[in-house]
Amino acid sequence: MKRLLSTLCLAASAQLCQAAAPAPVKLTIDAAQVQGPMTPIWAWFGYDEPNYTTAPNGKKLLSDIAALSPVPVYVRAHNLMTSGDGSYALKWGSTGMYSEDKDGKPIYNWTIIDQIFDTYVERKMKPLAQIGFMPQALSQRPQPYQHQWKPGTPYQEIMTGWATPPNDYDKWAELIYQWVRHSVARYGQKEVESWYWEVWNEPDGLYLIAPDTKLEYFKMYDYAADAVKRALPTARMGGPHTAGAGRFMDDFLQHALRGKNLATGKTGSPLDFVAFHAKGAPKLVDGVVRMGMNTHFKRLDDGFALVQKYPELKGIPVIIGESDPEGCAACGMQTNPENAYRNGTLYSSYTAASIAREFDLAARRGVNLIGAVNWSFEFEDQPWFAGFRDLATNGINKPVLNVFRMFGKMGGERVAVGGDQAYDAARIMADGVRGARTDINALATRDKHSIAVMVWNYHDDDIIDAGSPVELQIAGIPARQVRLRHYRVDNDTSNSYSAWKRMGAPANPSPAQVAELQTASELQESGTATTLDTPDGKATIKIQLPRQAVSLITLGY
């Protein structure tokens, strides 16, 4: 392999590189200056429809997710306790784990939940096991039970019999106890100890029907936590997975830490981690999608601030149970045109820029962030690239998944990054990324064998242009020579959506077209691997970075 000097231009052509040279955006990376661990907060995923797990496309996507991560991936799904035969629909799923005989005696059926959890465990994934929703036999309002919601209809229509507290708390607690005991018997104590258990979803929002929602949720949590801990004292239990970080979450934390336990009568309830949700708010502006990363960051900061408020929570693991650009994964772009960002590179650049800043937002409040769940998976029986918030369409991965593949190549410790055109988290939280200036910044890591630098060119507005020349000045390289690789997600690279559009956007791609889309969906290198001499521990690398593109530069040694 030909050796090059420690200054290298990586571009589509020499002419482009020369044109880029006069005024590059400069980013400095000091691999000797450690900022903290590269906690794999990105390796968490979730979805409403648990029965997609065992569909062929679901299994393929889970395998792809597991393959990209060097650590076990955590998976969170709704409807794990919902009654039904395991059929899927939008925002619906079921396992039928609980029913009763004619005398009201419990009947437990673990068949479908075992199939779902087996699919995870076979791929060395871990459940973020959600205790919800309410089985029909335990519902306070059993009819109507299954909703018939479709995109474009009022969101409130999903609130049917699955969304009530139990009509018998003792039976509900016993169901949870038996589920955990069964899990230990099937998967082993050590495995189940590595999971996380939670109660319900967004009880402060639309997901719980009760005259006093807060009191009922506290009671549900206390009974569930007691049942989980009786079944496995070393199990990890937490919550509240509220839609936002407001009064409900604050009151829950006070209850769990200092209040009267409504199941045991003692003070406090088990709380091994804290979880809440944070979403952005995209909208259409003059026909162009404009993201709401500032709203997303404000909601993250609100949650971190509540954790920081309680001394008892110092160091407790924090999980953002859903951390996304907006709220409804099952609302496609046909009914919600502001969601058109989901197919292309705006979703991928948003994901890179937002996950990187979550480290900074957590550090700002001194909280122990361990996970940020990307609430997107796949949707069965839907048109190609219909604009759902998903990682794959009809078995073909979308560009956003390649950003997670990039994250999977970053490990060890985060190191210092500086730049002359970089937004920090506080500025984005205040104003977003608006106006003429884009956010060109990086996240950099080092481990024993490599340095990795993820670089993005992000803007809230869904516009693509040639972007900017970028100069990476990397110092602290602990080797005299490195193997340089450049991975790219942009409008032409690692992008199945662009490939599909070039085909004419076929509604039913042929087998040959599907194979072509599969190739386009993989994370691709820009150019070939290069050997670079770095005798002084430094390298300067120049790239042309289009707007909404993401690059990953790795230096192996």
Task: Characterise this structure.
- Helices cover about 30% and strands about 25% of the residues.
- The strands form five sheets. Strands 1, 2, 3, 18, 19, 20, 21, 22, 23, 24, 25 and 26 form a twelve-stranded mixed sheet that branches.
- The two termini are about 15 Å apart.
- It folds into two domains: about 180 residues, Immunoglobulin-like, CATH 2.60.40.1500; about 375 residues, Glycosidases (TIM Barrel, Alpha-Beta Barrel), CATH 3.20.20.
- It is globular and about 75 Å long.
- The chain contains 13 helices and 26 strands.
- The protein is an alpha/beta fold and about 550 residues long.
- A hairpin with a 2-residue loop joins strand 16 and strand 17.
Main attributes of the structure:
557 residues, alpha/beta, Immunoglobulin-like, TIM Barrel, twelve-stranded mixed beta sheet, eight-stranded parallel beta sheet, 26 strands, 29% helix, disordered N terminus, Glyco_hydro_39, glycosidase
What secondary-structure arrangement, pairings included, does this model have?
Blueprint: E1 3-4, E2 7-10, H1 14-20, E3 25-37, E4 44-47, H2 56-68, E5 74-77, E6 98-100, E7 106-108, H3 111-122, E8 126-131, H4 169-187, H5 189-193, E9 196-199, H6 213-231, E10 237-242, H7 247-258, E11 273-279, E12 283-285, E13 288-290, H8 293-309, E14 317-324, H9 345-365, E15 368-372, E16 392-393, E17 396-397, H10 399-408, E18 413-419, H11 425-431, E19 439-446, E20 450-458, E21 468-475, E22 481-489, H12 496-502, H13 511-520, E23 524-525, E24 530-533, E25 539-545, E26 550-556
Parallel strand pairs: 1-24, 2-25, 3-21, 4-5, 5-8, 8-9, 9-10, 10-11, 11-14, 14-15
Antiparallel strand pairs: 3-18, 6-7, 12-13, 16-17, 18-19, 19-20, 20-26, 21-25, 22-23, 22-24, 22-26
